[in-house]
Amino acid sequence: MPRFTVPLLLLLAALGVAGLFFFPPISQPLGYHDFADQRFLVGTPNFWNVVSNIPFVFIGFLGIWRVVREAKNQTNAQGRWMDLVFFAAVALTGVGSAFYHLNPNNGRLVGDRLPIAVAFMALFAMIIKEYLSRQIGVLLFVPLVLLGAATVFYWHITESQGNGDLRPYLLTQVYPAVAMPLILWLCPVKYTSTGALYGALGWYAGAKVFEFLDKEVFSLGHIISGHTLKHLAAAVSCYMVLIWMQKHHRMDDRYEEPASRRLI
Length: 264
What we know:
By secondary structure, the protein is mainly alpha-helical. The chain has helices at about 5-20, 45-50, 55-70, 75-100, 105-130, 135-160, 165-185, 195-210, 215-220, 225-245.
């Protein structure tokens, strides 16, 4: 691992936190809930934006089943409970997002964003554990998950008071999205399925593009909207993480973490 990896990550984090003091509070845009596809089908409002959350629930429970199935493996207890939190958050993302899209509003948006924030920060800590430092990843897991959740509640409280502030939530979304590929690039520990993680990050980036182009995509024949495709692409991203968890192991099973990688 290059010596500048940790200082670089800390510098980026410091710049992100500093940015909170240079930019004014960002409230929830008024048009956020105005999605392109609002078709009422089978007695369900916003049908496709609701049912496209089913894959999250399926993948989440599939991951939970995998963790429970391997519960007898006592050699990776730390990894098991971290995986369990991630997949539980993925399943709840499907439930929360479906609930939100039945009647999009700021109150229901909390149930949508909360599990997303938990899952994203959980994955960030897991990547730190596997590629940067096992000890630091384990130590940071709970604080990072709580931080992600806290930013959602902070936004909701400030929004209900009439001065909504999305800045901390956006920081916990943007910083890991930058830091995770950097860690994979700068700390190339030889695992058998790191490509699946790159795939997961790529599909997540694609999901954000679809979200941004919601109305433009829907205008192409009014078949499917960008937001619906966002859900499906993000679900594929979660499935790629599941593949990584199932198959990754060091190419040299005799590998022992060198002192240079034991950061604490």
